[in-house]
């Protein structure tokens, strides 16, 4: 951006909290390049909308970011400006026929994704051999509830498949069978060589979990049908990676090595946890995907969308679910024996506050704990920390790997989640509160950050050490008495990984996490804090659903009833045109 041409910018009306520096800078740039004051205001609002996850700004009506909505005549005048196009020619801003304003890049992301996915909508015809293979792959399956899974596997060689479902509905189990089916179909067609399959997920932690689940699933299926051993080894030859790794992200050049010019050498890409993927990254996958390669998307479309812009899985599912012979398969039966939270997940998904509150009264696994102010929060945090001390204290005196393993497991038993990171009800303050109490109880000096028993979360990928954003670890001395940070095993080595605390990439306390940060992890029991403010737009049903979906056995809601009702009534839809473009595909 050319800083020399920045001009002062004071559009009216401004948001209540005033323009942020980056919004002001974009607006000034527009002014400096000959754009009108009105266009500068649109650019500033578009930046604000993007920071809330939208990929565009609909101009005709007021938006949740606070933008006012402009008259049709004003929008027409904006269309005529030199910095604006209708998308046919390159320009900094695009206003499409529906009056949505985009930055050129986001516009191209949507177009490209819609084109690549839209070209993959044919579904293969059923035949008897397929049916026999499906039967073989589903030996030992719970036949009363696996119809949707079978349907997905029968269509394994479709150019596009989208598997969506809540926790424990069998997405990974089905994905393994889908890979096997695809390989068996290729063998039947006389391919001879193994398929080149790339497995990836948005975060290192999610990739690690995918590997573990697929390996476990392979062991189970081979135990029943040993002849599948070789096929399993072939389809799982390459372990799952982060999407960035798969595409060859270069941090120094800030671009991917693979793209339209240098596509991936693969026959199939399977992406897990796609709800966490942002628009730009899915576009990068679409660019790098060879024309004849298949694409399988797995995830829970009801979960919170990526922290960056776009809600790609939700858009794809909403646009293509229900299309006859379409690529979306929804799995809705919870298979885990501890599926006690499934009805609550259903209530959260549908925004049914009465239903959820009733379940909280009736189900032992669910609890509603009224939370109306900071004093109430403090008391709750004291009690929560007290429970943690009981579990952690006996383990924090240990040393070496077995003790660290037990400590890691102990921290998985209960996890506090917060809607916000900052503020009195945010994760940072709650973690500080809890850590202070545990530290005191364990007899560590105040202010110490390096104490045995502490749980930490990694905030930045460190490829050289194999530590990734979201990885959870604990601090405990090794056999030599030196404090170490211990993390779950990676790859085929079953040992925990130990690092000197000073070698860790950026990290923070994990005693309380935001719901976003907890995505991809599961805990026995979860408590979710909703700040008592029904007007807070960030509190929505996807947030409550996502927090609930991270709990295996128990869930506590710390909230006041009006806030919970308001949150469940809100289904935040991110603004974008991908859904509509896919519906037309
Ligand atoms: N058809 C089936 N028959 C028997 N058990 C099944 C079936 N489908 C899934 N399961 C079992 O349910 C459990 C959850 O399956 P899986 O891990 O594949 O679900 P998931 O949707 O990937 O879960 P998450 O999103 O939590 O990772 C596993 O123990 C799996 O073996």
Automatic annotation (TrEMBL):
<dbReference type="InterPro" id="IPR006344">
    <property type="entry name" value="RecD"/>
</dbReference>
<keyword id="KW-0238">DNA-binding</keyword>
<keyword id="KW-0227">DNA damage</keyword>
<keyword id="KW-0269">Exonuclease</keyword>
<keyword id="KW-0347">Helicase</keyword>
<keyword id="KW-0540">Nuclease</keyword>
<dbReference type="Pfam" id="PF13245">
    <property type="entry name" value="AAA_19"/>
</dbReference>
<comment type="similarity">
    <text>Belongs to the RecD family.</text>
</comment>
<dbReference type="Pfam" id="PF13538">
    <property type="entry name" value="UvrD_C_2"/>
</dbReference>
<feature type="domain" description="UvrD-like helicase C-terminal">
    <location>
        <begin position="510"/>
        <end position="553"/>
    </location>
</feature>
<comment type="function">
    <text>A helicase/nuclease that prepares dsDNA breaks (DSB) for recombinational DNA repair. Binds to DSBs and unwinds DNA via a highly rapid and processive ATP-dependent bidirectional helicase activity. Unwinds dsDNA until it encounters a Chi (crossover hotspot instigator) sequence from the 3' direction. Cuts ssDNA a few nucleotides 3' to the Chi site. The properties and activities of the enzyme are changed at Chi. The Chi-altered holoenzyme produces a long 3'-ssDNA overhang and facilitates RecA-binding to the ssDNA for homologous DNA recombination and repair.</text>
</comment>
<feature type="binding site">
    <location>
        <begin position="165"/>
        <end position="172"/>
    </location>
    <ligand>
        <name>ATP</name>
    </ligand>
</feature>
<dbReference type="InterPro" id="IPR027417">
    <property type="entry name" value="P-loop_NTPase"/>
</dbReference>
<comment type="subunit">
    <text>Heterotrimer of RecB, RecC and RecD. All subunits contribute to DNA-binding.</text>
</comment>
<protein>
    <recommendedName>
        <fullName>RecBCD enzyme subunit RecD</fullName>
        <ecNumber>5.6.2.3</ecNumber>
    </recommendedName>
</protein>
<keyword id="KW-0413">Isomerase</keyword>
<dbReference type="GO" id="GO:0008854">
    <property type="term" value="F:exodeoxyribonuclease V activity"/>
</dbReference>
<dbReference type="InterPro" id="IPR050534">
    <property type="entry name" value="Coronavir_polyprotein_1ab"/>
</dbReference>
<keyword id="KW-0067">ATP-binding</keyword>
<dbReference type="InterPro" id="IPR027785">
    <property type="entry name" value="UvrD-like_helicase_C"/>
</dbReference>
<keyword id="KW-0547">Nucleotide-binding</keyword>
<keyword id="KW-0234">DNA repair</keyword>
<keyword id="KW-0378">Hydrolase</keyword>
